[in-house]
Structure prediction request, 1874 residues.
Amino acid sequence: MPFIPHTEQEIAEMLQAIGADDISALFEEIPSHLLANELTGVPEGMTEMEISRLMHARAAQHPQSVCFLGAGAYEHHIPAAVWEITTRGEYYSAYTPYQAEASQGTLQLVYEFQSMMTALTGMDVSNASMYDGATALAEAVLMAVRGNRKSKSRKILMPTTVHPTYRKTTRTIVQGQHIELCEVDYDPATGVTSLEAFKEKAGDDITAIVIQQPNFFGNLEAVDEITDWAHENNILVIAVANPLSLAILEAPGNWGSAGVDIACGDGQPLGAPMSAGGPYYGYLCCTQTLVRQMPGRIVGRTLDQDDKEGFVLTLQAREQHIRRSKATSNICTNQGLVVTASTIHMSILGASGLEKAAAACHANTMALVKQLSQIEGVDCAFESNYFHEAVLKINKPAVEVLVALAEKNILGGYDLSEAYPELGSAILVCATEMRTDEEISAYANALAEVCA
Amino acid sequence: MPFIPHTEQEIAEMLQAIGADDISALFEEIPSHLLANELTGVPEGMTEMEISRLMHARAAQHPQSVCFLGAGAYEHHIPAAVWEITTRGEYYSAYTPYQAEASQGTLQLVYEFQSMMTALTGMDVSNASMYDGATALAEAVLMAVRGNRKSKSRKILMPTTVHPTYRKTTRTIVQGQHIELCEVDYDPATGVTSLEAFKEKAGDDITAIVIQQPNFFGNLEAVDEITDWAHENNILVIAVANPLSLAILEAPGNWGSAGVDIACGDGQPLGAPMSAGGPYYGYLCCTQTLVRQMPGRIVGRTLDQDDKEGFVLTLQAREQHIRRSKATSNICTNQGLVVTASTIHMSILGASGLEKAAAACHANTMALVKQLSQIEGVDCAFESNYFHEAVLKINKPAVEVLVALAEKNILGGYDLSEAYPELGSAILVCATEMRTDEEISAYANALAEVCA
Amino acid sequence: MLIFEHSKTGRNGAPQSPKQKANVDDIPASFLRKDRAALPEVSEMQAVRHYTQLSQKNFSIDTHFYPLGSCTMKYNPRACNTLAMLPGFLSRHPMAPEAQSQGFLACMYELQSMLSDVTGMAAFSLAPMAGAQGEFAGVAMIEAYHKSRGDDGRKEILVPSAAHGTNPATATMCGFSVREIPTLDNGDVDLEALKVAVGPETAGLMLTNPSTLGVFERQIETIAKVVHEAGGLLYYDGANLNAILGKIRPGDMGFDVIHSNLHKTFSTPHGGGGPGAGAVGVAERLKPFLPLPVVTKEGENYRWLTEKDLPQSIGRLSAFMGNAGVLLRAYIYMRMLGREGMVRVAEFATLNANYMMAEAKRRGFELAIPDRRASHEFIITLKNEARDLHVTAMDFAKRLLDLGYHAPTTYFPLLVPECLLIEPTETEAKEALDGFMDAMQQIREEAEADPDLVKGAPYTLPVKRLDEVRAARQLDLAWKGNEVE
Amino acid sequence: MLIFEHSKTGRNGAPQSPKQKANVDDIPASFLRKDRAALPEVSEMQAVRHYTQLSQKNFSIDTHFYPLGSCTMKYNPRACNTLAMLPGFLSRHPMAPEAQSQGFLACMYELQSMLSDVTGMAAFSLAPMAGAQGEFAGVAMIEAYHKSRGDDGRKEILVPSAAHGTNPATATMCGFSVREIPTLDNGDVDLEALKVAVGPETAGLMLTNPSTLGVFERQIETIAKVVHEAGGLLYYDGANLNAILGKIRPGDMGFDVIHSNLHKTFSTPHGGGGPGAGAVGVAERLKPFLPLPVVTKEGENYRWLTEKDLPQSIGRLSAFMGNAGVLLRAYIYMRMLGREGMVRVAEFATLNANYMMAEAKRRGFELAIPDRRASHEFIITLKNEARDLHVTAMDFAKRLLDLGYHAPTTYFPLLVPECLLIEPTETEAKEALDGFMDAMQQIREEAEADPDLVKGAPYTLPVKRLDEVRAARQLDLAWKGNEVE
Ligand SMILES: Cc1ncc(COP(=O)(O)O)c(C=O)c1O
Ligand SMILES: Cc1ncc(COP(=O)(O)O)c(C=O)c1O
Prediction:
């Protein structure tokens, strides 16, 4: 029997010990009219050889396209060591480390992860992960509402330069708690959110603002002045940042004169393959002041009976299994294994490796933008500084252009027309360190053909 | 620096401790005119991202053909668990277990491997592996020559139904030691070696004979009567057997009334992917009498100071590192990691799983032979019992037929015309448990087209 | 030793990043980082060695029997991992065109169908990324449903006292208030109390069945009737379907919405804390509210349903589409089990739990609910041992670690004093179950002879018992020697 | 516990074989097995758990510093494994048509070229499956060469007393007799003795340089001259090129034939005993004798050379083409290192060895060859400790295990009493080297204070010191409870 080790003899012995005639007797408490008929929607079982054949065939249905698509998920190089170690049974098949003494591997690793994330973001503390960047932002908003004692409004300013599905997800998650998410428009010339725009929407009591850096368009927001303005007005600041960009760009903990209050984002660029959308993980960091508002697991260093160092889950009184309806969040299972991969990834690359990777992404995207924008009918959408991702306007409908490129096995970018109709036909493009000069030129040639 | 952890400061400290001005001073004993110029045949180094791109491209140059080719290397299902565990660093990156106490993982595993191979072959002892099946046969011949004290001739009877490159390899390896390898022809009607044929070549002093079961054609040799005849004449018997076949066919240890003296073969069908020819491993088993003639590593069970069970390399006095020019063989490094995989493979499948796999191979090959031999111009070459591999005669040149099939992404079989010109145009075909009914029919259709 | 303590300035895993740093001079200095982040600087080998050694400090399914109740620590077939990580899946961008994603979409569509079949629900969304998010989606749908009907006064979610902490926490997150319903000694919900509690305020009841006490809720049909008649909906916390797979379907019991923890019943690994997947299934009337995206099939083609298709959807729960890789693992596992394998999971998970329970009884342990059939799990209470020997459930748990067994869930459900919630799962052999019970018996003997021995455990692990109070009081959450020299 | 002891009749890894056993009734019963082989019958999880736990009982590069002299235990980059195991390589049948194997053949061809370049030889064959088989091929070529010239009287191979055991064993296997040449105290070959030994019987001399004593043979040009003038050929045992890579080439030193252990210098893993690859390179005059197959390039295409191309070849050494997967790993590693990386390997392997040697001296250990530069390795002799404290090199070795270091090679080369041959390799950081020397110093202090402590080591491993004599006397080579109940 697949995955079941019982022999006939053992089954008999076990039933006898139980005092049951057969296995069905164990289900006698279920009203018999409720017992299920044979399943019809589940096919017959397959051997590993058969499922392997099927999955290889399914995977082969996906053409190996050259990816210039980012928009929140990026194709980066991941050292082979990362997932070979991550999928070791001892990491892969362990549970949440409730029994600390039997889980020092995972616990120490998470402590190291927290340390790395605080180093990267310049914040005081990090938790052990949220589901993804979008839910991390939603939880950051909830934290801010709990944490900003000076504000009563439950009103959050959210620039439209924040990732569209991050905004949608946040809306879904915070909507039950009477929080107002108030959108702030960007400057159509620069593609960034001016301080004026924030001020306009501000009114007199704002709980928190969100800033994404680089923003969804890849453009660089004036984070220092916005942060300082917010703090002057008792507004908490939530930063959303691609953690790989933080190898080069200023850490949220250093924005303005005091740094932001909460920083979050998606850890995918740090060691998670694109894998059709997940699993990735959300990172969530904050100031020491807000630590008790943190959702999710946090690992702390402590001592054992012999005063030897060790690691445990800590501040559990914030969590659902202790605090139940008063918990900071309902999160229980998080994205531990991806955090494992990410921690190993960061260790192997180090800050200098991440810096080189990030710089290469930026340089490649610049090269791409330069070539593409030379094509007749293709133009840069914005006049501003950007990092590693940029918006191009095209003289033909983006959706058609992208389909034509896809047929040439080029994923040409993200179609902005649905989320940002005001941009007309526009796409968001990205060339990571994985892209070669030849691929960039091939894209330019293909786009020139398509636009001709 | 790739894979080198030294910082500038450390280098300076280390040189100072050594008392050398710079690293080149460490090479001062090399006559300076011998110092090498810059290498010209080695390209510049590549990052992992670059080599990964290259290797993916190289691998993609191999079309995924449907394989009906066997001839000593077979496409079998290997559970995913096998290589995931085998490539764990603790197995992958350990050395030969010289320090037994720090190598109990590998040592116990090899002891279990030896136990499994003796169970499968019905022999008393097994070593820890030879390089492959061909070299295992060569070493078996050398063992027999050392072990058969009653014979002086150093003459070995070798049927031509033994794998052609096994015979060649054996010749290469034993040629320096004045051993005569005397070929015995097969019966052209049955494709097996008759006892008469052995007797004809025998003369009065033969050291050993070799029998491959199933033989290279897939046919079943009359192993019982040949073994008994050999033993009656003080001839040692060396069996070559596909170990997967031993899940179904009689174990060499039970051939005839006393069983063979040495059994060997290639372990590839037990968990090694085809991987372009290796690494596989040779297994080598023998009777208790011959154990001190064994080449290679052998693991034994013993006790530690507290009488706890443990495992060590044993009978090392046979080996080159102790006995030097008097050793039983020069073998040192063997195929440990593949043995690791194979041991896990056998554990997961068990005897019943191997039996089902072997039976499926046989049934598939029978189905294939049935369909192919119905094609006009295609016929079975031999009238005999076969297992899992069979010879077909074709009315067109085999080489052309195989090329035509290859263009349809079918590896149609092994061209026998070079090794067995007397067969005319003939191919050896095999359909393992991996082949589906659809693939078998597709082959039949393709061959019908090609032969039409 | 922390990875940071292996760090030396200038060390790195050189082949893992471009050889030269590209120019980023176009970015004004004000945007740039001033100091390099204090990440560890180690060689690739040092990282490999460090994290390989660390891994060995974990208990896991691949190394130990791990009967952690409510967590379903069963074997994670390696094929699920290998096949879900085929390059064709890993390299797929989440927003790759549907035309180039048919293989993946086919798997997701079939996974939705299989889940619908085994649970008896009308439709599934795979969006939720863990059980708790599945609960969130479910409760948000309940809210959306009432709202859509103009039924605005339903502000309360009922939760049995035995419920998992995520249930009340989720209800709060969705803006509901929580009312607890007591549980009877026999493990059933207190029906009378429920009847008193329901009313026009009732949005719904969240129920786990078999409950977290490890018994089947026999009055489920009556409960459903009571809640439905009051206008509420019935939520099924399907974190653990292991005991009912192919035996009884939540849809048939009357549930309106359910989440299923694919990382439990469907054997995707727990990964030391995740990721999971908390697919959510609904009865017909809740279909319009399903979270996005959902996969649909049109002719031979698969495509995502979006806001345009489901305008009443509660919306998105993630940036893309949930934990795709986890969903693939569950898909592969379900296909390997097949319909016949599903039932067997329930049968043998139940057999193992009942056998252990019988053994526990025979060996003189007190059961929380002695006279019922266990489902996939059961509870021992060590209140006598705690009272007479001053050895607690936690002491037993720690001592078990020494004897090579991961501890069961301790102190949950909160109702049962000094409890161990034991879930063996179907993939464990009888020897493991017997070995565990032998260990329990040994510990009790040790507790009688020398209670300090047990109270001082564990002794054989990388650390002795850790001071959790100190951890919470003297917070040390990140390495502060952060200045890499 | 052995895997057999987890076995129960009827258990199995069901999804791993066809569901039903196909009919094999066409095969007469006399050919069929009567009893099922007594392999273990366990579940997949039991096998996974057993072999995962077992693995943790090994020391390895991925877990420990492993300065095993002559074995070059350096980091095995994980990319080499991952990329060599791409399905496109794994699923390639060894006899797949050349037209469908160009990717693989290109790698092999380039590997041959790179090896020729770093060794200064005219051509390479990748056929040999380990160092010893490479030696076999080399010596067989020497024999074939002399024979081809009708020079039949050369029956002797000369081997320095410091040589690795495979050298004399190989010579014997090829049918030669072996004559040992003494080694001087300074590690050089005794040139006078060599001059006396050479003559018309001399087929060749097998030499390792740097020698197994860890020093560079300075008289190599004279030695080459002496041997060549006597009509013999010069064989280079290139098991360890780590100290000379890109620094000096065996071809330039005058060697006629060389094997290279790719599983050492080129970092393919040792796998707990193998597999390896012992590629063999030759000077121009030995090219016709290379073992088969060899890859050649014609225009843009690669193909195998066969017997037809090389009729004088010594022949085949394996059923197919050697350890292809190992060769791929070496190829990937060499491409990652590149030309600049090659030299660095030699430099830092040498730096590490000389640093440790200097540290050993500073800490009062006696060096076997105190006044020379070390190459990639060096030797400590503990003869004083053995004499004065009765603590042997083996005792030191075992105690090192307790302290978390794999022991160096003990009692090899045989010339040096109570020796430890220490090879740190270039991939170890200074901390590891210092830690090891600290441990050595600690052990000597322990030996002075309490010799029995050291003699009783190890204490912290899965077993204490094992009885090797018992193992050899009471042979127990296979589990004999073989009857699975
Ligand atoms: C009964 C029950 N409900 C809900 C959950 C929450 O699931 P998750 O951890 O995936 O969020 C769990 C898991 O711990 C559980 O056991
Ligand atoms: C100097 C020397 N020569 C030859 C060999 C033999 O190589 P292999 O073990 O690959 O057969 C070794 C390896 O142990 C060695 O160190």
